[in-house]
TrEMBL record:
<feature type="domain" description="APS kinase">
    <location>
        <begin position="24"/>
        <end position="173"/>
    </location>
</feature>
<protein>
    <recommendedName>
        <fullName>Adenylyl-sulfate kinase</fullName>
        <ecNumber>2.7.1.25</ecNumber>
    </recommendedName>
</protein>
<comment type="similarity">
    <text>Belongs to the APS kinase family.</text>
</comment>
<dbReference type="GO" id="GO:0000103">
    <property type="term" value="P:sulfate assimilation"/>
</dbReference>
<dbReference type="GO" id="GO:0005524">
    <property type="term" value="F:ATP binding"/>
</dbReference>
<dbReference type="GO" id="GO:0070814">
    <property type="term" value="P:hydrogen sulfide biosynthetic process"/>
</dbReference>
<dbReference type="InterPro" id="IPR059117">
    <property type="entry name" value="APS_kinase_dom"/>
</dbReference>
<keyword id="KW-0418">Kinase</keyword>
<keyword id="KW-0597">Phosphoprotein</keyword>
<keyword id="KW-0547">Nucleotide-binding</keyword>
<dbReference type="InterPro" id="IPR027417">
    <property type="entry name" value="P-loop_NTPase"/>
</dbReference>
<comment type="pathway">
    <text>Sulfur metabolism; hydrogen sulfide biosynthesis; sulfite from sulfate: step 2/3.</text>
</comment>
<comment type="function">
    <text>Catalyzes the synthesis of activated sulfate.</text>
</comment>
<keyword id="KW-0067">ATP-binding</keyword>
<dbReference type="Pfam" id="PF01583">
    <property type="entry name" value="APS_kinase"/>
</dbReference>
<dbReference type="GO" id="GO:0004020">
    <property type="term" value="F:adenylylsulfate kinase activity"/>
</dbReference>
<keyword id="KW-0808">Transferase</keyword>
Length: 197
């Protein structure tokens, strides 16, 4: 850390912005295998919040890797840096008063725990989008599992690279048995219970 850098407290605080918005801000961190439903659910929740007049935003793995993180690949260190940067971006969104939904595989438990530590209590919710590998593989929305099985991608999560399940998520959404609508209801229920909206 450069000793010549000093943190500036902004004039308008997070609390000011939350008061103006009439709701609190937080991050809903969706984690799960490729094809488990992270993007689908993050967007469905975002849509539900939008209809409720709530300030929200989606940060999605594929999109962020087209811009901010286009210098990163899928080796362990790259995935760690990917998640570290997203955590910092999510913190800015929370500071700006929004509810941010994130859709990254974020396969390593330690990385997710480090992100959690950036936030105050009830500002970070880990949501496990749980779906058996076989079901994700059958869905194969981008044809990537097929490429992984044929050896075209050798570090694909769940096949050539590990996924560490959350041990104590705020919510688990089982997308092989639960509908999208039910999952959205559970997430909004969590936000209401925590008095965020
Ligand atoms: N090797 C490998 N492993 C996993 N995923 C791969 C890989 N190569 C490309 N993709 C595509 O990239 C998306 C995952 O990016 P993430 O930023 O979420 O990954 S990570 O959190 O850094 O592990 C992932 O998107 P989702 O399917 O939406 O999860 C894939 O489309
Ligand atoms: N209950 C469900 N929840 C979420 N996605 C589902 C569900 N049932 C089927 N799907 C489908 O599974 C696929 C999940 O893809 P996607 O959301 O891109 O996953 P991820 O972002 O985890 O890679 C989509 O085609 C979606 O329509």
């Amino acid at each position: 850390m450069n000793n010549n850098l000093k943190w500036h407290q902004t004039t308008i605080t997070k609390k000011d912005r939350q008061r103006l918005n009439n709701h609190k801000s937080c991050v809903l961190w969706f984690t799960g295998l490729s094809g488990s439903g992270k993007s689908t659910l993050a967007n469905a929740v975002d849509h539900a919040l939008y209809r409720m007049g709530i300030h929200s935003y989606v940060l999605d793995g594929d999109n962020i890797r087209h811009g901010l993180n286009k210098d990163l690949g899928f080796a362990k260190e790259d995935r760690q840096e990917n998640i570290r940067r997203i955590g910092e971006v999510a913190k800015l969104f929370v500071d700006s008063g929004s509810i941010v939904t994130t859709a990254f595989i974020s396969p390593f438990r330690q990385d997710r725990e480090q992100i959690c530590e950036l936030f105050n209590e009830d500002e970070f919710f880990e949501i496990y989008v749980k779906c058996p590998l076989q079901v994700c593989e059958n869905r194969d929305p981008k044809g990537l599992y097929r490429k992984a099985r044929s050896g075209e991608i050798n570090d694909f999560t769940g096949i050539g690279s590990p996924y560490e399940e959350p041990t104590n998520p705020a919510l688990t959404l089982e997308t092989d048995t639960e509908s999208i609508a039910k999952a959205v209801e559970k997430v909004i229920g969590l936000l209401v219970k925590k008095k965020i909206v």
